[in-house]
Design a protein that fits this description.
heterodimer, A: alpha+beta, Glutaredoxin, 4-stranded mixed β-sheet, elongated, B: about 500 residues, alpha/beta, Rossmann fold, 5-stranded mixed β-sheet, about 15% strand
């Protein structure tokens, strides 16, 4: 895991929250914006979100923890997402994923000790006719091979 | 010279951006004036990046094109595929919902209109709400998300409900493996979806729409957000739709990686900013949906098909199809296939024709073992049932479902016990936790299949019983349909479950 999670000042969190207050059902857009800005959902955001939206802290925590996308600590500098779903399995996706994980010495959701690479599973990128599929730092790869994925992630 | 290079995510995943950049570079070096249009995909993914060159009004296709091919492409010496419309995979389709996809720059509203766009909305603006709903009913359109509920009847419920605010919600949480039609349409022809939602608004009295797109689709999110902005600037959306005095506006919202949010009531909770937990029905979302208001929740393909139904009339659409499955279905051919992609055709084509003929068999060249139809909750169909015609009732009778019409082909190296285990594992990861049979059953399911894998035959009836409990005791399709892939694997591919037993003995 990355060494330390730096504390984010409350004012910065509140500024992000304020941008979305006029929306109907604003919590998910707020969480996405917080994560885009800080790389994770800072723990300090929970009471601030609860206050802003008149919710309990437990409710806010419940929402954050429900969704796979939201992280409580930043990911590695590069994020590899490999599709584990059926269409990619039909094209050898499982073996390819095992190779990537083995080369990095990781299990799913793991981050290398130097904080360089995180590997996440994803259940379908919509590239089912050119599997196996992966995404490295937002770049899509069809007919992916382990070597190509690792090279894209600089590993 | 005009050159079309798709901006679709699948084309990009196969190198389209590098090809587009290389064409621009090479053209500049030669002093050629080349207009590069980033269109949607034509849907023949095995040919991507599929580049089209237009000279004197004729579009000729080349593909798959890689960077090294670019000089020959501009020389005119690269061997080509001829016009896209003549490629057999394309020529055999009936493109209604996807008529414009890949033909135009998805964000060019002028090109959209030149190819028939806005004609449906213009016609709807001259009709009463009741007549629009009547047209949709007469078309026979059924929910393309998988459940197959008649779209017109759902709309009528919302239309006749009394409320100060109603909503149109587009379900673009296309999480099923093997499906990519929603993504392809949003990236390739977003105005069709916007037009369909505006028509739905007119038909039901809803003035606000939301498109809930999964976060795994960044390209689709970007295109849809741009299209909504353009729609507002050009007066397609806003307080005065096409100058009619009628209001309709919409927002793009992004999911957060929860498969279950593709279920309509979970999706509504998620839009409201809650955990994506399933709601019990009744109340129906059509009466008490988003923020407790009457809400149409339709899949991308249902809403995107409204445009052509209003443009060409219900009778035109209903003339295609089989029995109660009217019109066309954009079938997504995926997995281990030679020719993967989107094939829109009238209902009724036998599954075997799709797999062996249109898809050209497996990519690996090995024999087909099974086809999963309808996503991770769909049954595994053996070759023996390849005569099943593609239709809602036809698949239902065989203990399967067509779902969102994705078909995933597996060759004979697939281990069906492993696929059954994966289905349970996926359900355990993605269960929202509301229903015990799903939340706990999926975990027990993985363990029970592991027992079978170790050669414990007593676990087979236990798995069967567990599947029955999940099917009967879950509120939504995740817990309720996970037994389809599991039981179809167990009953139709028993050898894969017995092999372990023999090994143990």
């Amino acid at each position: 895991m990355p060494a330390t999670v730096k504390a984010v000042p409350d004012e910065q969190i509140s500024a992000v929250i304020a941008e979305f207050m006029s929306l109907d059902g604003p919590l998910l857009p707020m969480l996405h914006a917080l994560q885009a800005r800080f790389g994770h959902i800072p723990a300090a955001a929970v009471p601030l979100l609860a206050d802003a939206l008149n919710l309990g802290k437990a409710e806010v925590h419940g929402v954050i923890s429900f969704y796979h996308d939201f992280r409580d600590a930043p990911s590695g500098r590069h994020v590899i997402r490999i599709c584990r779903a059926e269409a990619c399995q039909a094209m050898g996706g499982e073996t390819m994923a095992e190779r990537v994980l083995a080369r990095l010495g990781l299990d799913w959701h793991g981050t290398t000790a130097n904080g360089a690479v995180t590997v996440e599973p994803v259940y379908c990128l919509g590239l089912c006719a050119c599997g196996p599929a992966a995404m490295v730092d937002g770049r899509l790869i069809g007919r992916a091979e382990a070597g190509r994925i690792l090279a894209e992630a600089g590993a | 010279m005009k050159v079309y290079v798709p901006r679709d995510a699948a084309a990009k995943a196969l190198g389209a951006n590098a090809v587009a950049a290389s064409i621009a570079e090479e053209a500049a070096r030669r002093g050629l004036t080349v207009e590069i249009v980033r269109n949607g995909t034509r849907g023949m993914i095995w040919l991507e990046p599929l580049v089209e060159v237009e000279t004197d009004g004729k579009r000729l296709a080349y593909g798959p094109v890689n960077v090294a091919d670019v000089p020959a492409l501009l020389d005119g010496t690269l061997p080509g595929l001829g016009p896209v419309e003549d490629i057999p995979f394309f020529a055999r389709q009936t493109r209604l919902t996807f008529a414009r996809c890949g033909l135009i720059d998805p964000l060019d509203l002028v090109a959209y209109e030149a190819h028939g766009g806005l004609a449906g909305l213009r016609r709807a603006l001259t009709m009463s709400a009741e007549d629009i709903v009547g047209e949709v009913k007469a078309s026979g359109l059924r929910g393309r998300g998988g459940a197959g509920f008649p779209t017109g009847i759902k709309w009528d419920t919302v239309r006749t409900a009394e409320a100060p605010q109603k909503y149109i919600v587009c379900n673009a949480d296309e999480g099923d493996s093997g499906t990519f039609a929603d993504r392809m349409l949003m990236e390739g022809d977003p105005f069709t979806l916007i037009e369909g939602m505006a028509i739905a608004g007119l038909a039901t009295g809803a003035t606000k729409g939301f498109v809930y797109i999964r976060s795994e689709y960044p390209d689709a999110i970007e295109v849809m957000e741009s299209a909504v902005r353009i729609g507002r600037t050009e007066g397609l959306l806003g307080p005065n739709v096409l100058g009619s005095g009628r209001a309709f506006d919409m927002e793009i919202r992004v999911g957060a990686g929860a498969y279950v949010c593709g279920e309509e009531t979970s999706l509504l909770n998620s839009l409201e900013g809650k955990r994506g937990v399933v709601r019990a029905k009744p109340p129906l979302p059509a009466l008490e949906g988003l923020f407790g208001r009457p809400t149409v929740v339709n899949n991308v393909l249902s809403l995107a098909t409204i445009q052509v139904i209003l443009e060409k009339g219900a009778a035109h659409y209903a003339a295609f199809g089989l029995g109660r499955s009217k019109g066309t279905m954009p079938i997504q051919i995926a997995g281990n296939v030679k020719h993967g992609g989107l094939f829109e055709t009238a209902f009724g084509l036998p599954l075997g024709d799709l797999v062996s003929d249109i898809a050209g068999g497996t990519a690996s060249g090995r024999p087909v073992k099974a086809v999963q139809v309808g996503g991770p909750l769909g049954a595994y169909i053996p070759v023996a049932q390849f005569d099943t015609p593609f239709g809602y009732e036809e698949f239902d009778q065989k203990g399967g479902l067509i779902g969102h019409a994705g078909i995933v082909v597996f060759d004979d190296s697939a281990d069906m016990l492993k696929m059954a285990r994966f289905a349970m594992e996926f359900c355990a990861v993605e269960s929202c936790g509301k229903c015990t049979p799903c939340r706990l059953g999926a975990v027990r399911g993985v363990e029970t299949i592991d027992r079978i894998a170790r050669g414990d035959a007593d676990a087979v009836p236990l798995l069967t019983d567990l599947c029955a409990t999940m099917k009967d005791g879950s509120l939504c399709a995740l817990g309720g349909f996970t037994p389809f892939p599991v039981m179809s694997a167990l009953t139709r591919f028993p050898d894969d479950f017995a092999r372990a037993k023999e090994a143990a003995e």
